[in-house]
Amino acid sequence: MRILVTGGAGFLGSHLIDRLMAQGHEVVCLDNFYTGTKRHILKWLDNPYFELIRHDITEPIRLEVDQIYHLACPASPVHYQYNPVKTIKTNVIGTMNMLGLAKRVKARFFLASTSEVYGDPDVHPQTEDYRGNVNCIGIRSCYDEGKRVAETLSFDYHRQNGVDIRVVRIFNTYGPRMLENDGRVVSNFIAQALRNEPLTVYGDGSQTRSFCYVSDLVEGFIRLMNCDEIGPMNLGNPGEYTILELAQKIQNMINPGAEIIFKPLPEDDPKQRQPDITLAKKWLGWEPTVPLDQGLELTIKDFRDRIEGNQK
Ligand SMILES: NC(=O)c1ccc[n+]([C@@H]2O[C@H](COP(=O)([O-])OP(=O)(O)OC[C@H]3O[C@@H](n4cnc5c(N)ncnc54)[C@H](O)[C@@H]3O)[C@@H](O)[C@H]2O)c1
Description:
Layout: E1 2-6, H1 11-22, E2 26-31, E3 50-54, E4 67-70, H2 77-80, H3 84-105, E5 108-114, H4 141-161, E6 165-170, E7 173-174, H5 185-194, E8 199-202, E9 208-210, E10 212-213, H6 214-225, E11 233-235, E12 240-242, H7 243-254, E13 260-263, H8 278-284, H9 292-311
Parallel strand pairs: 1-2, 1-4, 2-3, 4-5, 5-6, 6-11, 7-10, 8-13
Antiparallel strand pairs: 9-12
Bound molecules: nicotinamide-adenine-dinucleotide.
Nicotinamide-adenine-dinucleotide binds next to helix 1, helix 3 and strand 5.
C-alpha cells in the first residue's frame, strides 16, 4: 500500500515509518520539521519506496495514497505552547486539509488524538465514553481543544462524506528519539540524570501518569488502522506510577547520587491519568508488552548515546 504519514519525522511518526517500511509498504513522509528531524528517518532517504516531502499541513496538498496516518502536531507542552495559534491551526486547518485529501482519494484516515481530550479527568481510569473536563481558555487548550475539534472533524467527515476514519487517543508514550528538551517527564528526568543535574519534580510528585513504550503503541496503531472499528480507542499502558516514583526509578538507573528538587505545578496539570484499555483488548487483542524498566533501559541508552556523543 501507499501510506502517508504526516509528522513522520517526529518521535512516534518515525517509529511508525520504520514498521511500515519493514512491512514492505511504500511510505510518504510529510513534515515541516518543527519538532521533527531528518535524523529520525535518515536510514530511509535512499530507499526507492520512501519519499520525504517538506510541507506544512496548514496548506493543502494533493497526493495519491491508500492510507493516511495523521500525526503532525507538536505534542509536548513546551512546543505546543510556544506558538499556540499555530498549534490550533495545525489541529484544525491541518486536520481539515488531511481529511479533505482522504475524502478526495478515498484513503483510510487515522487521527492521532490524545488522552488530553479528557482534560483533568474526574473519572478514573478514563474510558472512551467519558466526555472530559477541559478548560477551553487555558494554556493547554490550543492542544486539547484542538484535538477535540480534530476528532469532531473526523467524525463529521465520516458521517457526512463517508470518509473511512480511525481515531486513537494516545496516552503518554516514551522511547528512543524523544527530544531531550521537550519538557516531557521521562525525557526531562533522563536528560537531567545523565547531565548530573537535579531531577525536577513539579508539585509534590503525587500526580500519576501511565507510560507506554513506543513499540507497543505503534503495534496498536497498525492493528487499529487495519481493523473494522473506527474508535475513538484508548491506547496506552495502564500501569500507573506517581511522578516521584518515576523520578526515583530513573535516579536509581542512571545516577543514584542525583538530587530530586520540587517546583510549583504548572496551570491545568492533570492530577491523574490512566487509560482503560478494555476496548483495545477486545477489538484489537492488544495490550502493552514492554515493562517500564525495560523500556526505560532502551530509552536511557538512546539518550546516553546522543548526550555523550554531543559532548565528544
Ligand atoms: N508522544 C505522546 O506521548 C503522545 C501522546 C498523545 C498524543 N500524541 C500525538 O501523536 C502525534 C505525534 O506525537 P509525537 O510525540 O511523535 O510528537 P513530535 O513532536 O515528535 O512529532 C510531531 C511531528 O509533526 C510535525 N509537525 C508539527 N506541525 C506540523 C505542521 N503544521 N505541518 C507538518 N508537520 C508538522 C513535527 O515537525 C514533528 O515531526 C501528535 O499528533 C501528538 O499530538 C503523542
